[in-house]
């Protein structure tokens, strides 16, 4: 899957999620292309989409991949959404696309069907902030990490909420965690988030996270 729809939580959280993905993929700002309306326009039209699509087909300048971002996707007109369908279904092989909005109500079902949906949440979670920071402690054994989560995650929804909060907490504490550790843990948290969104067993996703941290 190369196209992702990020929804839920706040606009800031969604933007930070996508920024973290770009960081983990080591994507240069030159290879990140935003689809935004023309200055003073109140919607994203076909001409905006065509210009953005042309950029996606260019080879990345200094990164392994090109990232296409559609912020505030609710601004897309129906005609613009229809113009996006082919690109979302078959983006250039070097391209990943991230679509962001609070609600999917303004998006065509054919748009959503071409995306892996990642639902962020602001709901309180049964874990404490310290849990993910403990994962960054290289002295902690696999068994100890499993014990940390054993009583906190008992189903897929618990897993999704824990991983989502862990991403936010780790990002907020990025200046206090060694950068190599931060990148390593964040990489596997983002992978776990995408696995859970793709209906992978929550136990497999969490076990993979623990084993590789």
How many structural units, i.e. domains?
2
> Under the CATH scheme, which architecture of the largest domain would be assigned?
3-Layer(aba) Sandwich
Order of helical and strand elements: EHEHEHEHEHHHHH
- Spans with pLDDT under 50 lasting ≥5 residues? 123-129
CATH topology of the largest domain, anyone? Rossmann fold
Question: What is the typical, i.e. mean, pLDDT?
Answer: 83
The value of Rg in angstroms is: 18 Å
What is the CATH top level name of the largest domain? Alpha Beta
Q: How would you describe what is shown here?
A:
The protein has a 5-stranded parallel β-sheet with strand order 2-3-4-1-5, with helices on both faces. It is built from 9 helices and 5 strands. The chain has 213 residues and is an alpha/beta fold. The protein folds into 2 domains: 3-120, P-loop containing nucleotide triphosphate hydrolases (Rossmann fold, 3-Layer(aba) Sandwich); 130-211. The radius of gyration is 18 Å and the shape is elongated.
């Amino acid at each position: 899957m190369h196209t992702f729809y990020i929804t839920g939580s706040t606009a800031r959280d969604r933007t930070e999620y996508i920024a973290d993905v770009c960081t983990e993929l080591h994507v240069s700002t030159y290879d990140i292309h935003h689809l935004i309306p023309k200055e003073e326009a109140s919607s994203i039209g076909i001409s905006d989409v065509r210009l953005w699509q042309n950029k996606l087909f260019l080879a990345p300048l200094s990164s392994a991949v090109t990232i296409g971002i559609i912020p505030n996707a609710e601004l897309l007109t129906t005609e613009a959404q229809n113009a996006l369908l082919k690109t979302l279904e078959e983006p250039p092989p070097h391209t990943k696309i991230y679509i962001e909005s609070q609600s999917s109500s303004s998006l065509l079902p054919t748009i959503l069907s071409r995306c892996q949906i990642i639902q962020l949440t602001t709901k309180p979670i049964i874990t404490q902030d310290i849990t993910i920071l403990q994962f960054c402690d290289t002295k902690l054994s696999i068994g100890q990490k499993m014990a940390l989560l054993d009583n906190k995650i008992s189903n897929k929804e618990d897993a999704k909420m824990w991983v989502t909060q862990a991403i936010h907490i780790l990002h907020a504490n990025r200046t206090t965690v060694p950068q190599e550790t931060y990148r390593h843990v964040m990489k596997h948290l983002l992978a776990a988030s995408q696995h859970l969104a793709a209906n992978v067993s929550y136990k497999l996703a969490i076990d993979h996270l623990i084993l590789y941290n």
